[in-house]
# Entry
Amino acid sequence: MKYLITESQRDKMVFKYLDNQNFLKVKKDKEICFLYSPDDLWAVMKYMRGKLIINKDLTREIESFFSIDEDDSEILLRDWVSKEIGINIDIWDVKSLSGLFGDTYLSM
# Structure
């Protein structure tokens, strides 16, 4: 059975899904990192110097789970992080996990 949902309903579902991930939000200096657990060395998403960096694996997860395209996935993740940190984000980038080394590596 197929259901038709509006774009705003889809967005709410994605936000609810992200809310239920219970990301750990770590603030360090002028950076805000989103982690799955305190033991993680890799940030799933990281906001620093006015730019959001998103792990490519997370965008793929959102794309496949909600059957949306890459651009919509990135925009929804950006909007969710904006809501969580209370800052309007205009610049973002998506990188593979290996590409995040040094850029979003979290040393505590």
Summary: Residues 7-100 form one domain. The chain has one domain: 7-100. Residues 25 and 34 are 5 Å apart (CA to CA).
